[in-house]
Design goal:
The complex is a heterodimer of chains A (652) and B (75). Chain A has 652 residues and is an alpha/beta fold. Chain A contains 27 helices and 11 strands. Chain A is elongated, with a radius of gyration of 29 Å. Chain B has a 5-stranded antiparallel β-sheet. Classes of the chains: A alpha/beta (652), B alpha+beta (75).
């Protein structure tokens, strides 16, 4: 028989870590509130039993006033679970007890897992588990989610769990009277719980059971207040605390007026520097390796496959694929783990805290800083992450502006152009520092435009005042470095790489065909790029580059290989085996510093990739906002390029 | 006095939450109720936002939102 387990808890208490451990899967975990926005479900076996485990989004209550609460509550309402495991943070035991009492009101077979117990003990917070178990009447286990032994105990706890009816909370007399007045009118499997929700005027429940009492706000928060009083009472009985309520030195430095922002920029600089410096050599090696292999593969296959099929496969598919692998893989393999480390340490909410004033000025939500950071990894992820913003208006602003932040796929293209045209190839400290600086400058440009566009949206299409929000600044957690490195490589880098490979193969084929199918003596590519040439010239670029950006809609990573193939097919066939030869190819095709600069600008600001667009459509459920998200960055890119070309012509 | 008037390092008791229903709910979710102690911990580098400690949780609240919360300073 399959046993069903639900993991219920506040955001950021380690539910996903427990879920990942039990199911051996790799749900993304990070140190900030709002990681899981959908139910995740997976199965695992202990001995001969199969368990089905549901990882619910982080919630504070079962009031269903937010999307996460709605998703989580519906799942609890519509399913019977063998264990409803409430997970809480030992340093936040009050909130955990509060949620536990609410879950006990709704479900039987409840248990409490007090997570991160070691961290709490270190801070001088001690919890009397036995006493707590006695008071609440459900099994309680303490756990350190980052300790294998402790997690093994949790497994045993699950295996040995005996079903148990929950004690229901008794409220004050008049509330109990009201509940009893409503119950006779209901016909559900848990009349008491539904009666309370009806009294709280919970619209979703009222619609569900089609029963409404007279509209009154009288009891709207009476129940939650009494539950909270009870939770405080319970917590006071089981909690021993010697913690001193001093602000950490790190927070003082990170949020200081003089040091806060520079440190954050420095962090980004260091990440980019490590990425560029570290990726340079392996990228070059991979590239050389693939170029060396190309003629060998060609010769072997030449005897087996007719040339008409072999040529598109080698010069189209193989070249695009190998470029994407050699240029993307090394930077990704460095950037993603580094960024995950920052994330799990707890830095991102501090960035949001520091930058909040600017978001206030734009009438936007301070949490937008978090979604921008996510966008650095992948815009589609950033757009989904915008769910952490409650106000619909502010969420839309965050979604629309998300693709102004360059994602990892854009980085790789930008890094290679920066290296070729602004730095040179000598891998000296100086050159890698300056290319990182240039990249940080471009990120700054992105941030500035995010603010500008957010402000304009707030004054025009999405008019409104900013609504209230609370930003949690979680305690710093020492990340498990090795695990994070492996997980982020596995889960993020590999996933993104596979997606890029899937797209680059057919795209390489299409552009090869474009270059080699001739109409009236002219290749299709030639016809298209000459058609786009005037527009390209206006932007300080050329027709081939514009065409590559158009073909690059499915993935930013393939823009450069498409440009290369375009040039090669136009007759300037250079035999190149490294970045230096590549620069020659570009220069031979008229690239100047202006071309390189405008390429970078356009790489930074153009429409989001197709995956991101689909995600935006899904999140906004609106074609209009998807279109707006398409137009705005593109327009910025075009206008900026026209502007720099104009300046360049005056000066040079 | 208002929550926003609390200086860094000062502790107060929450008297009344006059925020919107939604904001009140979110504050309640995070253990922020009337009669709870609150300590001002940090000011944003560009002001306009402060971080408060409540039940061991560090919460950042914009000054304009902290205007709606009445507190009384502890001795």
């Amino acid at each position: 028989m399959i046993k069903k387990i639900a993991l219920i808890g506040n955001p950021n208490v380690g539910k996903s870590t427990i879920y990942n451990y039990l199911t051996k899967s790799r749900q993304h975990t990070g140190n900030w509130a709002g990681k899981t926005v959908e139910n995740a479900c997976s199965t695992f076996n202990i001995d001969n039993d199969t368990y089905e485990i549901y990882d619910l989004p982080g919630i504070y209550s079962l009031s269903a006033k937010t999307e996460e609460e709605m998703v989580a509550r519906n799942l609890l309402l519509d399913n019977e679970f063998d264990i409803s495991l409430v997970v809480c943070d030992a340093t936040q035991i009050l909130r955990g007890v509060n949620l536990l009492l609410q879950v006990m009101e709704l479900k039987n077979n409840v248990a409490l897992c007090i997570n991160l117990i070691d961290e709490a003990n270190k801070k001088g917070i001690y919890i009397d588990r036995d006493k707590l178990e006695k008071i609440v009447g459900v099994p309680v286990i303490t756990n350190d989610a980052r300790n294998k032994n402790s997690l093994n105990n949790l497994k045993k706890f699950i295996v040995n769990y005996k079903s148990k009816l929950s004690n229901k909370i008794s409220y004050s007399e008049d509330l109990e009277q009201e509940i009893n007045n409503v119950i006779p009118y209901l016909n559900t499997n848990n009349n008491r719980w539904y009666a309370i929700k009806v009294l709280e005027q919970d619209q979703d429940i009222i619609n569900r059971i089609n029963y409404q009492i007279e509209k009154t706000n009288k009891y709207k928060s009476s129940f939650s207040k009494e539950i909270n009083d009870k939770s405080i009472n319970i917590t006071n009985q089981v909690l021993k605390e010697n913690s001193n309520k001093k602000i950490s030195k790190l927070d003082k430095i990170l949020t200081n007026k003089l040091t806060g922002i520079p440190i954050m920029l420095l962090l980004f600089f260091i990440i980019f520097w490590l990425t560029i410096n570290g990726a340079n050599y392996p990228s070059d090696m991979l590239y050389k390796f693939f170029s060396y292999l190309e003629p060998i593969i060609y010769r072997i296959l030449d005897n087996l496959i007719p040339t008409i099929i072999l040529n598109p496969l080698i010069f189209g598919v193989y070249r695009t694929l190998t470029w994407v692998v050699s240029v993307m893989l090394p930077p990704m393999a460095i950037f993603f783990p580094l960024f995950s480390l920052l994330e799990s340490f707890g830095i991102l909410p501090r960035i949001a805290f520091n930058l909040d004033k600017f978001f206030q000025k734009c009438n936007a939500c301070g949490k937008q800083a978090l979604t921008m950071c996510m966008g650095l990894g992948c815009n589609a992820v950033g757009v989904t992450g915008c769910r952490i913003i409650d106000s619909k208006r502010e969420r839309l602003i965050a979604i629309i502006t998300n693709s102004l932040m360059p994602c990892n796929g854009k980085f790789s293209a930008m890094i290679s152009v920066i290296t070729m045209f602004f730095i040179g190839f000598r891998t000296s400290i100086y050159s890698s520092i300056s290319s990182s600086l240039i990249l940080v400058l471009f990120i700054l440009l992105s941030i500035i435009f995010t603010f500008i566009v957010s402000k304009i949206l707030s004054k025009t299409l999405l008019k409104g005042e900013s609504s209230s929000f609370i930003l949690e600044l979680p305690a710093y957690r020492k990340p498990k470095i090795l695990k994070i490195i492996i997980d982020s490589l596995w889960e993020k880098a590999l996933a993104v790489l596979i997606r890029a490979i899937k797209i680059s193969a057919p795209a390489g084929l299409v552009i090869y065909l474009f270059a080699n199918i001739h109409i009236g003596g002219n290749s299709l590519l030639n016809i298209c790029s000459s058609f786009l040439e005037p527009f390209g010239t206006l932007l300080g670029l050329d027709g081939v580059i514009i065409l590559a950006f158009i073909f690059g809609l499915p993935a930013n990573e393939i823009v450069i290989p498409l440009i290369i193939m375009g040039y090669m097919s136009l007759g300037n066939l250079t035999d190149f085996s490294n970045l230096y030869d590549l620069k020659q190819l570009l220069v031979n095709n008229g690239w100047t510093v202006l071309t390189a600069l405008n390429f970078l600008i356009l790489a930074l600001f153009h429409y989001p990739c197709s995956t991101t667009l689909l995600t935006i459509k899904e999140e906004t459920k609106s074609l209009k906002w998807t279109l707006v998200s398409f137009i705005i960055p593109t327009l910025i890119g075009i206008l900026l390029c026209i502007f720099t070309t104009f300046l360049y012509k005056i000066i040079v | 006095m208002k929550l926003v008037d609390l200086n860094v390092g000062e502790t107060a008791k929450v008297l009344k939450i006059n925020s919107s229903l939604e904001m009140t709910k979110r504050l309640n979710d995070l253990g922020f109720f009337e009669n709870v102690d609150i300590k001002c911990m940090l000011t944003g580098p560009f002001k306009k936002i402060k971080a408060y400690l409540i039940n061991d949780t560090l919460l950042a609240i914009r000054d304009k939102d902290a205007l709606n919360i009445e507190v009384t300073i502890n001795d």
